[in-house]
Amino acid sequence: MANILHTAYQLIDTFWLGRLGANAVAAVSISFPILFLILSIGAGLTLAGTVIVANHKGAENQVEVNYSSSQTVLVIFFVSILLAVIGYFSAAPLMKLVGAGPEILNDSVRYFKFSSFGFVFLFMFFVFQSLMRGIGNVMLPMYIVLSTVLLNLVLDPLFIFGWGNIPGYGVAGAAVASVITQGISAFIGIGILIRGKKGIQIKSKHMRFDFTWVKRMFKLGVPSSLEQSSRAAAMTVMVMLVTSFGSEVVAAYGIGARVLSLIVVPALGFAMATTTLVGQNIGAGKLKRANKIGDLSNKIAFFGLTGIGMLLFVFAEPITRFFVPNDEQVIQDGALFIKIMAPSFGLLGVQQVLNGVFNGAGFTSASLLISVFSLWMIRFPTAFVLSHKTTLAFEGIWWAFPISNLIAAIIAFIYYKMGYWKIRSIKNRHAL
């Protein structure tokens, strides 16, 4: 639910920007994959913090839980500052690189620059959420995200259209609203960690670079960062394919991508829960129970997300119309994208949950290899061939999604049943 609420930021932005027109939606849609690419670098490191903290929690070692949490906050803080600076100054060349046309270039650059200001806040809350997840406290972050999403409902139209003495910033106003709410959530989260009343206490004396610990964090986190970065880079390349068909198709793709994120986010939520539970049970030496958790998570993800996919298939057109009510072509193209993807959402859930098993076992390189194969060796080549070498045109891009979901799920499931992750988990437990 917390991850779905995170996605609500994007959905709220798309709703209000749709009132400005298809170009406004396209401007945000074209910048989102690049933003995700930058954010994914730090997200992999926060996952490493989750795994380490979960292992120590399973071993009932509170001192190491606090120490590892403090080190995670320290590392991610400096990483977020670096990425914020890079994001701000590279906004214009990045938007041109992905093919932003003259009608959306200025808006996409402004949106990206304003969003870059919020990287530090966003990463700090990600750290808080990940650490809480590592000890099994998932409700508190959800309540915080819920309150900031409700605030964003008010701030979005306020800064997009303006009111009274507050000027309207147009497309950039959506980013301004998000940065404000991200800042509030970050201060609340870090404040809770400092007070230490919720199972973790970060301490200033532990916030000196421990290069042995940081090395271990990067060893676990870099493959995860590369996995998420490869996913984001693949999204970016897909956008470059889409932009060759015009801004209306970009807008349709953007709406479909938002709906896809509604599925990816709960899939990632299942995966993160699986990572935490597998990590805690491995830390406690309960390997058979970790295996049962993997089996159960697979069933929940497959049947649950397949059911949601069927609902989205039925209501594809009303959903698209909700975001862009006045452009029939965008509505038709976006609805078709959703209908083509929707039946494969359960397969996407299987892949993500199995990635969660591998990550919880400390075998993060397996997730990386599966994602790279799925996105770069299946999805992108399929999208390119179908869209440029057949009469499907841009619809070929739509079909690349279910094809890659099917193949990736099969490969991940076979690898899971082979059981190598269990051997790897034993090695990692001895390294604690």
Helix and strand arrangement:
Layout: H1 2-18, H2 22-58, H3 62-89, H4 91-97, H5 105-117, H6 119-134, H7 139-161, H8 171-195, H9 211-243, H10 247-283, H11 287-314, H12 316-323, H13 328-341, H14 345-360, H15 364-388, H16 395-418, H17 420-430
Search tags:
17 helices; 0% strand; mainly alpha; 432 residues
Question: Would you kindly provide a written description of the structure presented here, covering whatever features stand out?
Answer:
The protein is mainly α and 432 residues long. It has one domain. The chain has helices spanning 2-18, 22-58, 62-89, 91-97, 105-117, 119-134, 139-161, 171-195, 211-243, 247-283, 287-314, 316-323, 328-341, 345-360, 364-388, 395-418, 420-430. It is a multi-pass membrane protein.
Distance between the termini: 31 Å
Our Rg estimate from Cα atoms comes to 21 Å
Q: Fraction of residues in helices?
A: over 70%
Strand content of the residues, in percent?
under 5%
What is the tally of beta strands?
Answer: 0
Total number of helices: 17
Rounded mean pLDDT is 84
Low-confidence runs (pLDDT<50, min 5 residues)? none
**Anisotropy-based shape:** globular
Q: Main sheet?
A: none
What is the N-to-C order of secondary-structure elements (H for helix, E for strand)?
A: HHHHHHHHHHHHHHHHH
Structural class: mainly alpha
Number of domains: 1
Organism: Marivirga atlantica
GO cellular component, one term: plasma membrane
Transmembrane segments: 20-53, 73-91, 111-128, 140-163, 169-194, 232-253, 259-279, 300-324, 330-350, 357-377, 397-416
Pfam families: MatE (PF01554)
